[in-house]
Amino acid sequence: MLMLACPWCGERPEGEFICLGEAVRPRPLDPSALGDAEWAAYVSDRRNIRGRHDERWWHVRGCNTIFTIGRDTVTHQVFAGTQDEAAP
Amino acid sequence: MIGPDPEAMQRYSFFSLARNALSQHEGWQRAWRSPPLKPDYDVVIVGAGGHGLSTAYHLAKEHGVSNVAVIEKGWLGGGNTARNTHTIRSNYLRDVSIRFHDVSVKLYEQLSRELNYNILFSQRSMIDLIQSWGKMRDLRRRSLAMALHGPAYQLITVDELKRRIPAMGDLSDVRLPPLGGMLHPEGAMARHDAVAWSYARAADARGVEIHQHTEVTGFTFAANGAVTGVETNRGVVRAGKVALATAGNTSHVIAKAGLNLPLVTRNLQAFVSEPVKPIIDVIVNCPDVGLYVMQSDKGELVIGGGTDPIPSYRQGCHFATFEDVVASLVELFPRFRNLKMLRQWGGAIEFAYDASPIISATDIPGLHVSTGWYGGFKSIPVGGLTYAHLIATGQPHPLAGSFGLDRFRGLRFLLEAGTVAQR
C-alpha cells in the first residue's frame, strides 16, 4: 500500500487516488507545425523508465487535485514532486 | 556454416525412457549445448524466453538461418515465461487479433509432437463469468466477431455455468450475481517451463546457440546508423540483425539505442494456493471483478487478477491488488476461504498504447522489436513464427501486418479489448 502526499490533504492511502501515469511533456503549442512522427511520439511514446521517474496522480476520492510526484518504478519508493502541477 | 544434424537430437519416447531407466538414467544427453560465445552471428536475439527461443527455432526451421545466438541476461525462460499463468486462448475482439491467436492455439495443439517434448498441453476450456450487462454486450460482440473466424465462444446459462463449475458457491447473494457465461472450448493451459525448454532444445538441435548470463549493455552502429551488434558483459558481439524479445524491459534496453516506444511496463501478479484434490477442471475468468482461477496439475489453485494500476518494474506483490483479487475470490468461491496461499509473484508486462502486440522493424536499420505482449505466453508459437518471418525477409508476416510500429504514426490503433481480467 503506497502512501501518497497530496499537496492539499497531506499523506493519504493509495486507494483514494488514480495514477495517471508518467508525467508526459506538455502538449505542443502548435500541433499543426509538427510532422506525423513528432505528433505520434507526443501522443503515444513513453520513456517508461526503469528507476526513478515523475508521474501524475489524481486525488479522485478526495480533494480532486492532480499533482506530480517522483517514484522509483523498481522499489516503489516515493519522492517529493520535482515539478509543479502540469498545465492542462 | 552447417549446423548439427537435427536428427542427432536425442529423441524422447517411451522406449528412450525405458532404455534410460535400465541404465539408471545416466545416459541422457543435455537438452541444449553451452558453446563458447562467437564474435559474430547473422542474427542476435536478445532474450531467451518463450518468444526469443520460438523466434530462433522458426528462423532455423523455415528460413534456414541457423547462425543465430539467443542471449539472455539471466537464465533461460526465467522472465515472464516463468511468471505467467500459462493460459492459452483466442477470445479476442479485433479480426487481426483473433486470427493471430487462433493460429497460436493450433500451433500449441501440435507443439508436443512438433518439438518432441511433452508440454503438458491441457485443452480444458475457459469460461468467462458475466456479472454485468455491459460485459454481456461486450462479450456477445466478441462472440460474434470470433464466429467469423472460427474459434468458438458460446453463451451459456447460469445453470450451465453452475454445472460446469460446481466449486462456485450459491451466488444468489453476491454483489453482482452472474448473468451467464461465455464458453471458449479452445482455452487451454500448458507447462510454461516446458514450452521454453522444448523450443530451446529444438532450436539448439538446428544449430542455434543459447548464451545465458549475457546481458546487453549497449549497441554498436555503422556510420549510416544501422545496428551492427550488441555490447554485452562478455564483450562485443557483431550481428547482421538484432532482434529484441525482452518482455518487460524493452523500453529499458532500447533506450540504449536512443529509441522511445509506446510502452508502459506494469506489474501483473499471481499466486497459488496449497495443493488440493481436483475441484475445478476449467479455467474460470471473471472480468467484471478482475479475477481468474484454475487448478494446476499439482493441485494448486492458480489465481490472478488485473495489473497493478501504476507503472512498475517491481515483479512483486502489490498488496492493494492482492487484497482486491482475494476479496473477489472468496465472494465467488466461499469454500476457498480457508485455503492457504503458498507462493506469490509478479511479472513485468508491457502494455502498448493500444493494448496490442508490436512485431516490427524500428527507425534503426537492422534493429527489430517484439513487444507489447500483454499475456504473451499464449502467443509464443505464432509470435516466433511471425517475428522470424519479419527478421528473415524484412517483410511483416501476413498474420502480423497490423502489428508494426508505423500504426502509431498513422494513428491506426488496434484498441484490443480482449486482454484478460481488464476492467
Provide structural commentary.
- The complex is a heterodimer of chains A (88) and B (423).
- Chain A has one helix spanning 36-44, and strands spanning 3-6, 10-13, 18-22, 52-58, 66-72, 78-79.
- Chain A has 88 residues and is mostly beta strands.
- In chain A, a hairpin with a 5-residue loop joins strand 5 (66-72) and strand 6.
- Chain A starts with a strand and ends in a 9-residue tail after the last strand.
- Chain B has 423 residues and is an alpha/beta fold.
- Chain B has a domain at 123-187 and 264-352: 2-Layer Sandwich (D-Amino Acid Oxidase, Chain A, domain 2).
- Chain B is built from 11 helices and 18 strands.
- Chain B has helices at residues 14-22, 50-63, 80-83, 95-115, 133-147, 158-164, 192-205, 250-254, 319-332, 380-393, 406-409; strands at 40-46, 68-71, 87-88, 126-130, 154-156, 180-184, 188-189, 209-211, 216-221, 227-232, 235-244, 263-275, 283-286, 291-295, 300-304, 341-352, 358-361, 367-371.
- In chain B, helix 4 packs across helix 10 (380-393).
- Chain B is globular.
- The N and C termini of chain B lie far apart (51 Å).
- The chains are: A mainly beta (88), B alpha/beta (423).
- At the A-B interface, strand 3 and helix 1 of A face strand 12 of B.
